[in-house]
Amino acid sequence: xxxxxxxxxxxxxxxxxxxxxxxxxxxxxxxxxxxxxxxxxxxxxxxxxxxxxxxxxxxxxxxxxxxxxxxxxxxxxxxxxxxxxxxxxxxxxxxxxxxxxxxxxxxxxxxxxxxxxxxxxxxxxxxxxxxxxxxxxxxxxxxxxxxxxxxxxxxxxxxxxxxxxxxxxxxxxxxxxxxxxxxxxxxxxxxxxxxxxxxxxxxxxxxxxxxxxxxxxxxxxxxxxxxxxxxxxxxxxxxxxxxxxxxxxxxxxxxxxxxxxxxxxxxxxxxxxxxxxxxxxxxxxxxxxxxxxxxxxxxxxxxxxxxxxxxxxxxxxxxxxxxxxxxxxxxxxxxxxxxxxxxxxxxxxxxxxxxxxxxxxxxxxxxxxxxxxxxxxxxxxxxxxxxxxxxxxxxxxxxxxxxxxxxxxxxxxxxxxxxxxxxxxxxxxxxxxxxxxxxxxxxxxxxxxxxxxxxxxxxxxxxxxxxxxxxxxxxxxxxxxxxxxxxxxxxxxxxxxxxxxxxxxxxxxxxxxxxxxxxxxxxxxxxxxxxxxxxxxxxxxxxxxxxxxxxxxxxxxxxxxxxxxxxxxxxxxxxxxxxxxxxxxx
Length: 586
Ligand code: PHE
Prior knowledge:
This protein has 586 residues and is mostly helical. It has helices spanning 11-22, 25-37, 41-71, 77-84, 89-93, 96-124, 132-143, 149-166, 168-196, 209-217, 227-241, 247-252, 262-282, 284-292, 294-300, 306-320, 322-359, 363-383, 389-427, 437-465, 468-478, 480-493, 499-503, 515-535, 541-583.
């Protein structure tokens, strides 16, 4: 199968498509939330270090692996990795590079379809005159599927992806990126300007927009050595740059033999970085903090960023009033939509490349296969969103799988394939001179940093596998005395602190008490709230326990489905291998 495959139309198109691949919902919804949850300024240092020591090296690695595989007409990771080393195992490691894309697309496209629906609602004025809780309820009803609307928008979104993919790389993906990326930047610049110029006291804001930015960008060194913060930072770098997914390798496999990859990789990577740290931090957080204050925003992001993006922002936009409010809504959800679709297109290409290479499929049929698979795999995330299926997919595919694949990939590249050949691949045809230090970093620093991230995460993965948190909650609900004991313990820690402070709703204004004390107060408040709730006769403890048990069941089913998907892909890789063996193409 050495026939020349379709490729990229132009260099600008390639870079925009790669940037579009990276710039996604992760930049606008995931990044701000990770930053808030991990202490704002305390998060940024590990984040930037991970960008330099994990992100950039991996961009070099994945682009060069991709272009290398493309030289022998391989466009998906099973046989791209096989072209680096002939041992059998690598083909099956390469299964991850198809698996992750499909599994992420399964929930990602659903999320993408919400943004489309919210653009529509912003235009027709659904949110006008509603209170904040009404607007939050709109979202709750939406994901509970109280109407057919979510399903319709989801299918439209899948069809749109399929249609663009069926037009091929230069005719579809590249065009979408050329339209989507500039619009995204314009919308983003507008919203960022509006957000940073929010002034306390005007249009209902209680703080300046700058307060949110300061929270993020004032370096904090006290929690900088917490592994948890580093894990979150590394995870974010992987997700946002689409590293460890298999989609960069696939895009790069369509680059010409001697064409530059070093400068291309840097352009796309830094563009993503810019969009994330500048636009990603200048919209959601400043607006939310301006209207709600830091404490409430931190509280609201405990369960992810979707709440802020979909429940709160539309309400705040309405406060801006009239045309401005409508335009802000269209800009925000439109920006999310373009960010999302240019990423989901990238998730479609590996499976298409595989079917085209191994089974001679036409791009059009391969695109429909992707659409169909995402429909089947996505159905559980749509139908059982409230049961936690969506989050379960995100955890295994969008977090664990990436790191695992990347870890094995760098061992293959730097140690098995070897840095002599590896460095030659990275620098071949390069339009820039890459500092030689990166050769050292790729061999010695990145793998060990990643190994640390990988092994330090294992206990958490193990707990998750055993549903530790859910089981603890069930235990707590069934034995309320445990909570009471905790409450007494927490209150001892607060001995000597004024009760008016302990009962204050917001601790923002108490600048004199230390962060550690604030943390204790918050912990106490939470335990107390939980205790009040559980011991109130209104709470149906039995029903709650049943709900958690049900979600454990759904999580187990999700895992089984993902495992099945992996095994099926591996099976097809095996068939493809046998086919190649027969044709003498190995
Ligand atoms: N990088 C994308 C984001 O930030 C996510 C993505 C995952 C893109 C997998 C392509 C493949 O949202």
